[in-house]
Design a protein that fits this description.
The complex is a heterodimer. By secondary structure, chain A is mostly helical. Among the domains of chain A are: 122 residues, Orthogonal Bundle (Cytochrome Bc1 Complex, Chain D, domain 2), CATH 1.10.760.10; 73 residues, Cytochrome c-like domain (Cytochrome Bc1 Complex, Chain D, domain 2). Chain A contains 11 helices and 5 strands, in the order βββαββαααααααααα. In chain A, the strands form 2 sheets. A two-stranded antiparallel ribbon of chain A has the order 1-2. In chain A, strands 4-5 form a two-stranded antiparallel sheet. By secondary structure, chain B is an alpha+beta fold. Chain B folds into 2 domains: 340 residues, no CATH class; 114 residues, Immunoglobulin-like. Helix content of chain B is 42%, strand content 18%. Chain B contains 16 helices and 15 strands. In chain B, the strands form 4 sheets. In chain B, strands 7, 8, 9, 11 and 13 form a 5-stranded antiparallel β-sheet that branches. Chain B has a 4-stranded antiparallel β-sheet with strand order 12-10-14-15, with no helix packed on it. Chain B has a 3-stranded antiparallel β-sheet with strand order 2-3-4, with no helix packed on it. In chain B, a hairpin with a 2-residue loop joins strand 3 and strand 4. In chain B, helix 7 packs across helix 9. Chain B is elongated. The termini of chain B are far apart. The chains are: A mainly alpha, B alpha+beta.
Chain lengths: 289, 486
């Protein structure tokens, strides 16, 4: 509510001519230098607009006289980092695993690089930290199908499993049910045997029929004690960790129509040094041998 | 609300259109030299404060080989703060929060007792402004001489005196900016690097920045900083009450003012000495006001005049509003130091100080933090056991290498292994730790938990220094699938 501008008796200052609930406001003048600082800030802002990327138009924008680009700065930073790491990555590519492990500084680079590479390329299937997913092996568990030494891991990563690579790890469990090798009743019997003997669910059931079928059909690869065979890529059955599930149904499914997962041959996409780094990382997850 | 007349409205518009009232020219303040007790105290405080500021970085301190030799060093690039015998880590940053609380409460207490003592005596703005004014007086002369000089046209004498003044100001400002840097990097080293042009860009930037701000704020801005920029004068009124000592003109004694030889009126002879002495350019006789920094130079100026005119000194003095009112009425009023406000400030201060001291004295030289792996939450092993991964950070805040034993409590038969190390789990893990560093270990714990509740059970990591026996415990959890072991 505008009121009359009046002079304040104590300060000698004019009021603003506004009043709220009986409170009047003094119109204390702003110091001139303050105003000049304000103008200087406006000039500064104008300068920034001219020098740096500022005004958008249509699909483009004014790039500024300095040609500044944060994107280009990132590229330069990345290039610098790659250059900084080059020495270490070259060493990792050239040195044997034992020598890398003996060098803590190099090991740190390898594990860091390996962790990032793993997250970018391996994690979608194998899970963060190598925790695994149904159908995708848990790398941290140490239940290796093809071997868990550093060179085993390097070999698997480079050439893949059932990939197009000529050196790929290959195994093909026969389709006992789908191809009619075993009758459904026989599959049930062998599943009973595996479930009781190797999965630890012996509930006093007679599984001798299944044992016979197992000895004739399965033991050649999986071993008579279900210990598996890494040379053939035959998983260990006498284990608490099972690639395609821990249920009896999963056993029946696998005998009937085996699933055969494929892992890409990363040698075509990652450099040898990077593959060694990721091998060291996978080895360090807790399952390494 | 009454409607305003057309005529008033017209005047109002004219007034606004003129624009004169919107912006104020700065009134130049030419403070006059004063001599006296207050001035002496102010000089003493100035010398002590500036002496500490400029010279402290040069104080050396022996911490053994390989460690900084500077007594006070805020080594940000190496993440260590050194204060004489004390070495603070980034983890101790809460001490800084404590220090700020102490500072704030001390300021509240002092202000509620003695008004703006901080503003008038120890605030860097006041101290440096005082120093710059001293230079100004030394070069250009006292108030009258300076006013005359600025009023007359430019001549050779004015030019060279102004040049000399600004050169000295720049010199002091540069020394101030340089000293600032020395708190962050080793003083002798950075001095040498600075003059051989081999210091970092940051060093030159910050030296330049603090040189510029010192020169501008103490040379040019002066009282404008206190009046317009600083927030402190705005909320000081919340701490003052009628029992706070402030610089006060005893109006009951001084009024009515008398001029000349007449002795009939009050003690104030309206000589204006208090006004010309004021570094913020105000008249203390108008009472307590926003601009007054409570420095008391007007007291010295007035006492000088009172003595010369054979009157009682301390016409302007430190006193409380309550006592002044009592004196005016011819009564006497006791000084009340202890009142709810000061007792509360004092208690908070004592509690904060006790807390800080205890925290500082019992500060552990061994830190352990454990972060459990988020993914995978747990790993079931072929053997049926479960494994959880943890990242341990061991902060060894001593200057000696140590060796630690790590055990886990709460998980019977637990096996521990460093992820990249020997794959065979052991009940006790031996971990080496470098001196004055944080070492990180990824530790895998394997076990068969028997009491998982909702897939989780508590465990404790116990870290023991094998040499000294000092130990620290960190509570964590061990997780597994629902219904494990059932």
């Amino acid at each position: 509510m505008p009121t009359k501008i009046e002079k304040d008796a104590i300060s000698g200052q004019d009021t603003t001519g506004h009043e709220w609930d009986g409170l009047k406001e003094l119109n204390t003048p702003l110091p001139k230098w303050w105003v000049y600082v304000f103008f200087a800030c406006i000039a500064w802002a104008a300068g920034l607009c001219v020098l740096y990327p500022s005004i958008p138009y249509g699909r483009g924008y004014f790039h500024g006289l300095l040609g500044y680009s944060s994107r280009r700065n990132v590229d330069a930073d990345v290039a610098k980092l790659v250059d900084q790491r080059k020495d270490s990555m070259d060493k990792i590519a050239a040195m044997p695993f034992d020598a890398i492990k003996a060098d803590p500084a190099l090991m740190e680079v390898a594990l860091t690089s390996g962790r990032i590479t793993f997250a970018d390329n391996c994690q979608p299937c194998h899970g963060a930290g190598g925790g695994g997913n149904p159908g995708y092996p848990a790398l941290a568990a140490g239940a290796w199908i093809w071997g868990g030494t550093l060179t085993d891991i390097q070999q698997t990563v480079t050439h893949g499993i059932r990939s197009a690579d000529p050196d790929a790890r290959n195994s093909a469990m026969p389709r006992f049910g789908a191809d009619g090798t075993l009758k459904p009743a026989e599959i049930e019997a062998v599943a009973d045997y595996v479930w009781a003997t190797f999965y630890g669910h012996a509930e006093g059931k007679d599984v001798s029929a299944g044992a016979k079928i197992f000895a004739e059909n399965c033991a050649a690869c999986h071993g008579d004690q279900g210990q598996g065979n890494r040379d053939m890529g035959a998983p260990k059955l006498a284990s608490k960790v099972h690639l395609y599930g821990d249920s009896r149904e999963a056993i029946v499914h696998q005998v009937n129509l085996p699933r055969q997962g494929v892992m890409p041959n990363w040698g075509t996409r990652l450099s040898p040094g990077t593959i060694k780094a990721v091998s060291l990382y996978v080895h360090s997850l807790g399952g390494g041998e | 609300m009454s409607r305003i007349s057309k005529e008033d409205r017209r005047l109002q518009i004219e007034h606004e259109a003129a624009g004169d009232h919107l912006f104020a020219n700065r009134l130049r303040v030419y403070p006059k030299t004063v001599h006296g007790r207050v001035r002496q105290v102010k000089w003493a405080i100035l010398i002590v404060c500036l002496g500490i500021y400029y010279l402290l970085p040069w104080l050396r301190w022996n911490r053994g080989p390989g460690h900084p030799t500077q007594a006070v060093l805020l080594d940000i690039s190496h993440e260590r703060f050194y204060f004489f015998n004390m070495e603070l880590w980034p983890q101790d940053i809460w001490l800084l929060a404590g220090l700020l609380i102490l500072g704030a409460v001390t300021l509240f207490l002092v202000t509620s007792l003695f008004g703006r003592l901080w503003c008038g005596y120890t605030c860097p703005q006041t101290v440096w402004t005082d120093l710059f004014m001293w230079v100004e007086r030394w070069v250009e002369g006292d108030r009258n001489e300076r006013m005359q000089r600025d009023a007359q046209p430019l001549n050779a004498d004015t030019i060279w005196k102004k040049v000399l003044k600004h050169t000295i100001w720049m010199g002091i400002a540069f020394w101030t900016g340089g000293a600032w840097i020395m708190y962050y990097v080793d003083a002798p080293t950075v001095t040498l690097q600075f003059w051989t042009l081999s210091a970092s860009t940051q060093v030159y930037f910050f030296t330049g920045l603090f040189t510029a701000t010192t020169y501008l704020l103490a040379g040019w801005a002066r009282e404008q900083v206190c009046t317009y920029m600083c927030p402190w004068p705005r909320f000081q009124s919340a701490m003052l009450d009628d029992q706070s000592f402030t610089v006060t003109y005893q109006a009951w004694r001084g009024e009515p003012r008398t001029r000349g030889k007449a002795r009939s009126g009050g003690d104030c002879i309206d000589c204006g000495a208090c006004v010309t002495a004021c570094p913020t350019g105000i008249d203390i006789r108008d009472g307590i006001q926003l601009e007054c920094i409570n420095c008391g130079l007007c007291i010295d100026a007035c006492n000088h005049v009172m003595n010369r005119t054979k009157r009682d000194p301390w016409l302007i003095t430190w006193d409380t509003e309550a006592r002044q009112n009592a004196k005016k009425a011819g009564r006497s009023e006791p000084i009340r130091i202890f009142r709810p406000r000061t007792i509360i400030y004092l208690s908070v201060l004592v509690i904060a100080m006790a807390g800080m001291t205890t925290a500082l004295l019992t500060r552990s030289t061994l830190g352990l933090s454990v972060q459990r792996d988020r993914a995978p939450v747990f790993v079931p092993l072929a053997s049926g056991e479960l494994r959880n991964g943890y990242t341990l950070k061991i902060a060894n805040k001593t200057q000696t290498e140590s060796s630690f034993d790590l055990t886990v409590d709460g998980l019977p038969g637990a096996g521990l292994v460093v992820a990249e190390g020997d794959p065979k789990p052991e009940p006790v893990l031996h971990l080496p730790s470098n001196a004055d560093e944080v070492d990180s270990f990824r530790v895998l714990v394997t076990g068969r938990p028997v009491s998982l509740v909702n897939g989780s059970q508590p465990i404790e990591f116990i870290l023991r220094d094998t040499a000294t026996g000092r130990q620290t415990v960190y509570r964590s959890t061990f997780m597994g699938p629902q219904g494990y072991g059932k």
